[in-house]
Amino acid sequence: MKLLLDAGRRVVGLLLVVLVAIPVFLVLDPAAPPSSLDDLMRRSGFEHWSYTWGVTSGVWTLLGIGGAVLVGALAGGRVTGFLARAAAVIERSPRWAVAGFMGLLGAGLAAAVALIVFDGRTILNDASVQLLQGRYFAAGRLAGPPLAMPEFWSIQFMVHAPAGWVSQYPPAHALWLAAGFRLGGAWIAMAGAMGMLGVFSVLSFERLLPDRIAAARIGALLAVTSPMLLALSGAYMNHATVAAFAALALWLALRAETGRAVWALAAGGAMGFMVTTRPVSGLLIGAAVTAGVWLTAPRREPGLHRPWLLRRLGWWVLGGLPFAAGLAWFNARFFGGPLTLGYTAAAGPSHGLGFHMDPWGRMYGFTQALGYTSTELLSIGREVFGTVLPVAALIGLFLLFARRLRRGERILAAWALLPILASALYWHHDLVFGPRLLGEAVPAWCALLVLAAIGLTRLGRWAWLRDAIAIVVLVAVGYGLVAGGRARIDRVAARAAPIPEVTDPGPSLVFVHELWGDRVGARLAARGMRLDSVRALLTRYHPCQLEAAFVGAQGPEEVADQCRLESESDRLGWVGLTDYLWHGDPPGLDGSGVLWARDLGPEANARLIAEYPSRTPLFVLPDGRGDGQVVPYDTGLNALWGGVPP
Fold first, then answer.
1. Is 35 part of any domain?
2. Tens of pLDDT, residues 193-214
């Protein structure tokens, strides 16, 4: 068995090196249309390839390596000697002091990114929808009430169920955000998650790596300063929440190993929270950092190990049971069955894992999985650490050439690598934040990078080589986090849509003008159509054809005047309603602030205005750059719809 496991980790290491060193993303469709998934991932891969190994970067990389070799030759082992002494100093600090510092650092950086860099804005609809769900939770509701005129608010990733209007996502992250709202803002919840990550990364990594305390603490420091994880937390994404609870679950599991079995109860609860946030990665990572700890525990007396293990697994299952029951009840109430996730209710069975046609009608097969995985691995160094250093390949070399992996290294490797397998089997990928589907594994990648750097330096026979490796890793990662990391966060921030200020002090109804196709899609969704069907219709038919179908016309020519108005209304641009909804009064609930709604044209808007006579109607007038400004309703109507009165 040991030989088999040893061969397996060497094969995994070799695969990591190959998928980074060879431009495997070239298998992606070269004729893919702009903005398609193949096009996005291929271009990102090429950009990273040229960025890392292109002529200019290649020259600088070679010069840097050459300089490191020269310094190493002159230093004669003094660099690694200095680092060893620095590690001894790091280890002398009290554990809880270091953990508290990391927690404060993580919380402070997350709050700064959310409030200062992102200005409280979201980047992706995924977060906006969960924030809206969090607003309903914070108001004491499980969901928004069924909407009387859903076409004004239907957005993707929200499901119109008989029991209410609810997010497709499992509810735990929205509950976490709701706690933040009750305390003063959603950013508090994300700062809390990063603070928790800092504290429990230190505590768990030290228990996992008891003879390498400095490496454990540096790994925790890399985790709370990772630009990718800070961007995810600052943008309210649930990956950061799962990462924090994974660190907590690992610490609890390690406490259960050396203490009372009841610690396993809490470990099961932490894993349950992970699963009810992100089901697949929560299951894989959660099992690795809890049951994986106990299954790899050093065997005590042979006759005692089995009952010891069974007691911990029993408490673990008991701790996760309330979360499993709660998720099953939530799914049954809103999505039709205890095992039916909201993803399936929203987009159909094609949303699931595996090689098949995805909800957009595109084939996801082994070729796509290979190309996307290669691109994500390429981007780990740049996005997680802000450096050109091929981090995944470096860790792959460590797995390949290390004489043996210690228990802590194996658990961290499982935490880091299992999400790659899950991502390869999942049809959706993007690089907005970097390889965000690997976001919950960032702490493990950080710790593995430190361990890989130490391990590779120890493999070197000559002192100058060990010094050169240490200098390359130290300079590349240090400069990346300080300079490259901020650039990555700023790049993500540039995608955030600003929310215009509404100066009217009273309750208002503010119409947001979206693209014609989006307006048509919302009207289709309001009729109960599933998201995959909406996407298929919008891909296959022109919006004017769908306008004709709405009124039962024989063809587009019968609604030509309406189609002309709809098309011309987009001439100033458009903005996205999803970014706005969670900032104001949630649709369906009473409030005295801003109620955002979709602009559907003069006649439809007039019906909504009549439903809310106490609210002042206003308009968000697009400026062509994806932004907008709030103007009087008549001003917006004249600008976009040619002055047709409500």
1. yes
2. 999 999 999 999 999 999 999 9
| Residue 543 belongs to domain spanning | 508-641
Give the pLDDT of residue 574: 87
Quick check: 251 and 378 in contact, CB under 8 A? no
CA dist 551 and 542 (Å) reads 15
Which residue, among 537, 496, 421, has the nearest Cα to 121 in the 3D structure? 496
Q: Are 601 and 641 in contact (CB under 8 A)?
A: yes
Asked if 343 and 313 sit in the same domain, the reply is yes
Q: What pLDDT shows up at residue 366?
A: 92
Distance between CA atoms of 624 and 573, rounded to whole angstroms?
A: 4
Q: For a pLDDT cut of 70, what percent of the chain falls above it?
A: 90
Amino acid at residue number 356:
H
Q: Which of 268, 308, 323 is nearest to 290 (CA)?
A: 268
What's the pLDDT at 622? 87
Nearest-angstrom CA–CA distance, 546 and 72: 69
Q: Are strands 594-598 and 508-512 parallel, antiparallel or unpaired?
A: parallel
Query: CA 385, CA 434: separation in Å to the nearest integer?
Result: 10
Percent over 90 (pLDDT), the chain: 58
| DSSP secondary structure, 467-508, as one string | HHHHHHHHHHHHHIIIIIHHHHHHHHHTTPPPPPP----S-E
Which band of pLDDT confidence, cut at 50, 70 and 90, is reported for residue 646?
very low
CB 121 within 8 Å of CB 498: yes
User: Nearest Cα to 9, choosing from 422, 419, 407, 396?
Assistant: 396
What's the pLDDT at 503? 81
Say what the pLDDT of residue 24 is. 84
Contact present, 635 and 621 (Cβ < 8 Å): yes
The per-residue DSSP string of 565-584 comes to HHHHTTTT----THHHHTTS
- Give me the number of domains the chain comprises: 2
Residue 436 lies in a domain: yes
Q: How many CA atoms lie within 13 A of 618 on its CB side?
A: 24
Whole-number Å distance between alpha carbons of 183 and 194: 16
Report the chain's terminal Cα–Cα distance, integer Å: 75
Helix (H), strand (E) at residue 344: helix 342-347
Q: Where are the beta strands (DSSP E) in 78-141?
A: none
Closest CA to 333 of 530, 178, 147, 141: 141
Helix, strand, coil tally for the chain in percent (to 5): 65, 5, 25
Q: Among the three residues 493, 523, 540, which one is the final residue of a domain in this structure? A: 493
Domain boundary residue, one of 447, 463, 493 = 493
Answer for the pair 326, 276: CB distance below 8 angstroms, yes or no: yes
Q: Could you give the residue ranges of the DSSP H alpha helices within 184-237? A: 186-208, 213-225, 227-234
Beta strands in 207-342 (DSSP E): none
pLDDT (mean) for 584-588: 92
The answer to whether position 149 is within a domain reads no
Rounded Cα–Cα distance for residues 151 and 532 (Å): 17
Q: Is residue 520 part of a domain?
A: yes
Give me the pLDDT at residue 624, please.
Answer: 67
- Nearest residue to 631 (alpha-carbon basis) of 607, 599, 603: 599
For residue 629, the cross-strand partners are: 621
Q: How far apart are CA 496 and CA 122, in angstroms?
A: 6
**Nearest C-alpha neighbor of 223 from the set 435, 409, 441, 478:** 441
